[in-house]
Automatic annotation (TrEMBL):
Single GO MF descriptor: acyltransferase activity, transferring groups other than amino-acyl groups
Organism: Streptomyces prasinopilosus
Pfam families xrefs: Acetyltransf_1
Swiss-Prot/TrEMBL keywords: Acyltransferase, Transferase
Name assigned to this protein: N-acetylglutamate synthase, GNAT family
The N-acetyltransferase domain, residue ranges: 20-163
Length: 163
């Protein structure tokens, strides 16, 4: 099988490497768009360290890692916001494996994990410049909604019934 998706402890070396790759990409993308430069290395380190991943530990959360041909290739996390709502977060695929079905597989696995945790609704936020992410969520049946949080970089909010 080409793809596998399994739970992973947020503090594992694999999870840490994927978190670093995710932060680097989305931060650099924002700074290049808005300021014409990459992220300051010190700021990037603070951003990476600011999120421990503790909110992605069962029973209130879960981190999933996708592997492509056995190699860690992406991640997705869920965290319960309340008894019936989970938030999708940290959806990331390494550039080398994009376009091979891994993103949809990760999101569907996250939906299953959220449903297994009792959630009937999955929400997420993203930025306007992450057009690929917005297209993925729309293709997978998420609909744009009113904001469910006050995240400073969030510009689009989506939701989907999962139960």
């Amino acid at each position: 099988m080409t793809w596998t998706v399994r739970p992973e402890p947020p503090g594992s070396p694999v999870a840490a490497a994927l978190w670093r790759a995710y932060c680097t990409e989305v931060s650099d993308r924002w700074y290049l768009l808005h300021e014409g430069r990459r992220t300051d290395p010190g700021e990037l380190e603070r951003e990476i360290a600011a999120e421990s991943g503790d909110d992605l530990v069962p029973p209130r959360g879960r981190l999933l890692v996708a592997r492509y041909r056995g190699e860690a290739a992406g991640s997705a996390g869920i965290r319960l916001l309340d008894a019936t709502t989970a938030e999708l977060t940290r959806v990331f695929l390494c550039p080398a494996v994009r376009g091979r079905g891994g993103a949809a597989l990760l999101v569907r696995a996250a939906e299953d994990a959220a449903r297994a945790s009792g959630a009937t609704r999955l929400v997420l936020d993203t930025r306007g410049d992450l057009v690929e992410a917005r297209a993925l969520y729309a293709r997978l049946g998420f609909t744009e909604t009113e904001p469910h949080n006050a995240e400073p970089f969030a510009e689009h909010w989506f939701a989907q019934r999962i139960g």
